[in-house]
Amino acid sequence: MVRTNSNFSTAETKRIGIFGGTFDPVHLGHIGSAKALLAAQNLDQIYFMPCQQHPHDKRPMANAEQRLAMLNLALQGQSSFHVDDRELARSGKSFTVDSLIDIREEVGEQAVLIFLLGSDAFPEFHRWQRWETIFSLANVAVIERANEKSVHAIEAVELKQKINQAVDFVDAPCGQMTIASLPPYPVSSTLLREQLLQASAISSLLTEFMSPQVLDYIYQQHLYR
Questions:
Q1: pLDDT tens digits for 90-116?
Q2: Which of 39, 85, 108, 182 has a beta carbon 3.0–4.6 Å from 10's, enabling a disulfide?
Q3: Three-state SS for 112?
Q4: Which residues contact residue 28 at a Cβ distance below 8 angstroms, ignoring those fewer than 6 apart?
């Protein structure tokens, strides 16, 4: 598989966001959150990095090739967004720490890296593979999601210190955390898959939160049926 993001020089990639996930399917909530964070943190690029095999055995319904194709369609014409397929090209479970080690080696020690994840995933962050090492490689931006518990209400002792020390604007290559107060998107990939499974016709929710190109691809491939 050919990697779809280009190799950028350190000078060109001083502030980089890394958005990991299954993207099963990618939707406009993902894109909208990334755009808002791009502006709020003055990022140069955001890498969308789909995982091959979820560490917690969450099995995507679409295969790696299909999820990659949907991401490429969704990000067409958006020069600040790039698809990074390194986890799809790597066999076995996709651990964020392994990918961040690779990216840090590529961009150098001075580049600001910000790993993005949703507030639905963050309560279990301290159970991720070598989670503390992630902070030595990158910063972490937690995107508050609609209908999810506030990040500040998380009680895990391991995460409390990071939450209490959260900054508004990331200005270090790694080690910081920010809580992104972005417009909440009342949609998820799970909800959209349910709509696709149940709907005999395209629902308003699908047309509102999915790009036409991705929705056409889903129907052409008979996905989520």
A1: 888 899 999 999 999 999 999 999 999
A2: 108
A3: strand
A4: 185, 187, 208, 209, 210, 211
